[in-house]
UniProtKB/TrEMBL annotation:
Protein name: glycerol-3-phosphate dehydrogenase
Alpha-glycerophosphate oxidase C-terminal domain ranges (all copies): 162-298
UniProt-listed Gene3D superfamilies: Alpha-glycerophosphate oxidase, cap domain, D-Amino Acid Oxidase, subunit A, domain 2, FAD/NAD(P)-binding domain
GO cellular component: mitochondrion
Primary location group: mitochondrion
Family indicated by similarity: Belongs to the FAD-dependent glycerol-3-phosphate dehydrogenase family.
Gene Ontology terms for molecular function: glycerol-3-phosphate dehydrogenase (quinone) activity
E.C. number: 1.1.5.3
Domain FAD dependent oxidoreductase stretches: 6-140
Gene Ontology process terms (BP): glycerol-3-phosphate metabolic process
Keyword annotations of the record: FAD, Flavoprotein, Mitochondrion, Oxidoreductase, Transit peptide
Cofactor: FAD
Length: 328
């Protein structure tokens, strides 16, 4: 805004990841291929009970709903195939997605072609500080560097230094890895049947551990909803996500859409696209009850949810258009 001739500071790059069943990676153990046949890096890691593998790196245009190309998915499968004693099959892909990395170009760098995966803080006009690039995993470092740049620019005199490295996220204070046992011992999952009857179910270890790790010391609030409001049913078979989480996130975490929940609150879209699709109507039903949605809003949420999930190329919803897969 201060300079109409400013050089772009972002080079968008597409990165594709796929999710496979858990038997592709032992618990607590990952695999990295530092140099594939064409010089790229590929990894496999256990993630939320499944296996995540990736990634690719290619320039792309910025779009709201990026989609992975079939050749990118196949590249990842081919790259890990040489290092496993398990047959790597396209039909095992539970989910595949493309994300856009904001690779940063530092305007102050002497080499104008240098592109960084790290963030860049730059003051190109007095008092106007830009922070760009980076990633979620370094958000605290990004914030600290941006604030420090503002302090230097304004010649400010802060009362103390940065404290972000001492702050816990919500639910982190007082959390203990064994706290899931409190949920398992003290709460039931009260589940409504299709006939409207409420039946009790165990708060098993898988669900208890998930709630504890996802919500920390606030997990008991979710468990209480599951027990007291009949929202203890799992949203999808084989996954620990509960109906109660939808209600909790709507009430306390500003969850305003079905896509928000299925992608960012419980990660089901990334873990198993087809399971997410089956859970979508129930998620919309609960959110509609919490937010008093009318029929038009419910229909819109269903439409947006389907459009979003169609960008995830699992083995069931993928459209094979290249010659390699025709006829299979």
């Amino acid at each position: 805004m201060a300079n109409s001739d400013v050089v772009p500071m972002i080079a968008p790059s597409s990165g594709v990841h796929i999710v496979l069943p858990d038997y592709y990676s032992p618990e607590g153990m990952g695999l990295i291929v530092p140099k594939t046949k064409d010089g790229r890096v590929v990894f496999m890691l256990p993630w939320l009970g499944r296996t995540v593998a990736g990634t690719t790196d290619s320039s792309t245009a910025i779009t709201m709903l990026p989609e992975p190309h079939e050749d990118e998915i196949q590249f990842i499968l081919d790259a890990i195939c040489d290092y496993l004693n398990v047959q790597v099959r396209r039909s095992d892909v539970l989910s595949a997605w493309s994300g856009i990395r904001p690779l940063a170009m530092d305007p102050s760098a002497k080499n104008t072609e240098s592109i960084s995966r790290d963030h860049v803080v730059f003051e190109d006009y007095p008092g106007l500080i830009t922070i760009t690039g980076g990633k979620w995993t370094t958000y605290r470092s990004m914030a600290e560097d941006a604030v420090n740049a503002a302090i230097r620019s304004g010649n400010l005199k802060p009362a103390n230094g940065c404290v972000t490295d001492h702050l816990h996220i919500v639910g982190g204070y007082g959390w203990d890895p064994a706290s899931f046992t409190v949920l398992a011992q003290n709460y039931k999952r009260m589940k409504k049947t299709y006939g409207g009857k409420v039946i009790p179910g165990a708060m098993d270890s898988a669900v208890s551990k998930h709630l504890s790790h996802a919500y920390g010391t606030l997990a008991e609030r979710v468990a209480a909803i599951a027990q007291n409001e009949g929202l203890g049913k799992r949203l999808a078979h084989g996954y620990p996500f509960l109906e109660a989480e939808v209600a909790y996130c709507a009430r306390h975490e500003y969850c305003e859409s079905a896509v928000d929940f299925v992608a960012r609150r419980c990660r089901l879209a990334f873990l198993d696209t087809d399971a997410a699709g089956r859970a979508l109507p129930r998620i919309i039903e609960i959110l509609a009850s919490e937010h008093k949605w009318d029929k038009a809003r419910r229909k819109l949420e269903q439409q947006k949810g389907i459009e979003f999930l169609e960008t995830f190329k699992s083995s069931k919803n993928a459209q094979f258009r290249d010659g390699k897969h025709n006829g299979q």
